[in-house]
Amino acid sequence: MVETHRILAVFGALVGLVAVVVAGELAGAFHALERQVPWPVWAAAILAAGFPAFLGVVRAALRRRITPHTLMTAGAMAAAAVGEWSTAFLLVLFMRIGEAVERFTTEHARAALRALMELRPERGRVARGCEEVEVPVEEIRPGEVVVVRPGERIPVDGVVLEGYAAVDQSAMTGEAVPVEVRPGDRVLATTIALMGSLRLRATQVGQATAFGRLLHLIEQAETHRPQVQRIADRFSAFYLPVVAAVGLSTLLVRRDPLAMAAVFAVACSCAVALATPVALLAAVGAAARRGILIKGGRFLEALARADVLLVDKTGTLTRGHLQITDVVPRDGWRKEQVLELAASVERYSEHPIARAILRAASGLAVPDPQDFRALPGIGVQARVDGHEVTVGTPRLVADPEVQDQVRRLSEAGKTVLCVLRDGEPIGLLAASDELRPEAAQALAALRELGLATIELLTGDRPEAAASVAHTLGIPYRAGLLPEDKIAVVRDYQARGHVVVMVGDGVNDAPALAQADVGIAMGGGTDVALEAGHIALLRDDWHLLPEAVRLARRTVRVIRTNLVFTALYNLLGLSLATLGHLPPVLAAAAQVFPDVGILLNSARILRR
Ligand code: ADP
Ligand code: MG
Q1: Set 185, 233, 307, 312: catalytic member
Q2: Which residues of 308-347 are buried (b: 16+ CB within 10 A; e: fewer)?
C-alpha cells in the first residue's frame, strides 16, 4: 500500500535524524560546539527556529491559557538559563519537528476523505440555445439540459432525457459493476458514463446533489465525538496543569532545571490527543470508499458494542421492487377501475407499494388526486373525482368476506392491500416482493459477530411477515405502526441492550433515529441518506457485517493507540523525574508516538 510506504519513509527519516542527534549528544559534540559559538548566536538561532511557536505561546498566555508549547518553551528557557544553549536549541527544534509530524499525521488521516472530495466534478457541458457550452458546475441551474460524453464524470444529479450508457457508480456506491441507464432513469453526480453519451435534465446541482450532501455529512462526522474521545478531551483539560506541577516539583526536589525540561519534553507530546481522531478519520474514510456512510464516530463505537439487530421488512429484507400479482374487484367494479383509483392516490407516495401500483396502472387513465395524505404504517388517502379514496392495510376493513380473501392471498406470502371508496371496500390488490438474495448469509454472519438477537419488525400482515421470517429463521412482530417500532427499540434499550435497527427510511425513520445505530438501506436516495446514523450507498446486506467488523477494528485501534501513548509517556515521565533522561533525548523520543499512531491506524484501512 502506497500510503504505508509514505508513513514508513517519514518514520525512517525521523529515526535517522534522532540517531544523529543522540549520537552527537552522547559524543558531546553539541557541548563542544557550545564552547566555540558565543551565546548570542545560540539565542538568535533559538528565536529563529522557534519563532512561530513562541508567538502562539504568547498569544495563549494573553488569553490566560497554557499549551503544550508553553511548557516546552519553559523547559528550553530553563536549559538556556543554566548555560545549556545547545540543549535549549534542540528542544525548540524538536518542538517544531513534533508540530510538523503532527500536521503530517492529521493530514494523512484525512487522505481517504480528500481522495473522495477530489471526485467532485468541476465543469459540465450545458445545452443553451443551439450550442453546448462548458461551464463551472456552480453555474449549472436545476432544469437545464446537461450533455455528458463517453468517459466523462456526470456533473449533476439528473434524469436521462436521451441516450443510453453504462454508468460506473463506484464513486457513489462502491459498486464496481456498471449500471445501464436509459431515458427516464436517474443518474448521480460524480458517476461516470462509460460508453455512450447522455442528455440529462439536471435535478440537483452542487451541494444539493447526493454526492454534495454525502461530503457534507462526512465532514460533519468529525464533530460527533465518541465516548473515548470525550474522555481524552477531559483528560487533556487537567493533564497540562498536572504536568506543570510535576515539572515544577521535579525542579524543587532535584534542583535540576534540566530534569524539569525533560519532564516537559516527555509529557507535551500531542499523541494522546491524536490517538482517537486519527483512527476515526481513517475508519470513516475507509467505510465511505466501500459505500458505507458513517455520520459520526460515536456510531462506530455503538456498532462495535451492539447485541440486538432489528430489521424492517419491505424494502429492507426484500428488494422493494414489488409486483402487483392480483387485482380482485368486488361485485360491481372492474379491475381497471380499482387500479386507476388506487394509482391515483399513490401518485405522491414514496412507498415501494406505491411504485408497484403505479407500474401496474401504466397505460390507464390515472386522475390527479387532491388533498393527498400519508397515514404512516396504514396507507394513503386522497380525494379523487370528489370521492374519498384510501389504499392501505386490510385492517381498514372489517367485512368477514373480505377478510377471508385477504387471508387466502396473504398465506402465499403476499402483501395484501385494500382499496376503499368513501369508506366502502371496492377491491383488493396483492403484491409480491423478492427477498434480497444475500440477506440470509449476511444475517448469519452478523449473528456470528455477536448480534445474538435478531428480529423482524414490519407493518405488514403476520402471514406475509411469517413467510419471510421462516425463510430466514428469525422471529417477527407484524402489524406494527411506526410508533410501535420505536417502542420495541426502547424496550430493548431499557433492558440494557445496544440496538441496531436496519430500515429503508420509509415509515421507519423515527425508529432508526431512536436506535443506538440506525442503518438506512436504499442507496443514494434522499430518504435513505437523511435517515439513520449510517447510510448504505448500495443495497447490499454484505455491507452490514463489514461495517461491524470495521467498527470493532476501529475501537480496538483507538484503545491500543491510547494505551500505547499512555505507557510510553509514563515510562518517559518516570525516567525524566528521576533525572535519568537528558532533555534532548526526551524531546527526540516524542516524535515517535505520532507516527506510531498513524501506522497503527493504517491497519483500519486493511480489508
Ligand atoms: P414495513 O414495516 O414492512 O416496511 P410499512 O410500515 O412501510 O411496512 O407499511 C406497513 C403497511 O402499511 C403496509 O404493509 C401496507 O399495508 C400499508 N401501507 C404503507 N404505505 C402504503 C402505501 N403507500 N400504499 C398502500 N399501503 C401502504
Ligand atoms: Mg419499510
Answers
A1: 312
A2: bbbbbbbbbbbbbebebebbbbbeebeeebbbbbbbbbbb
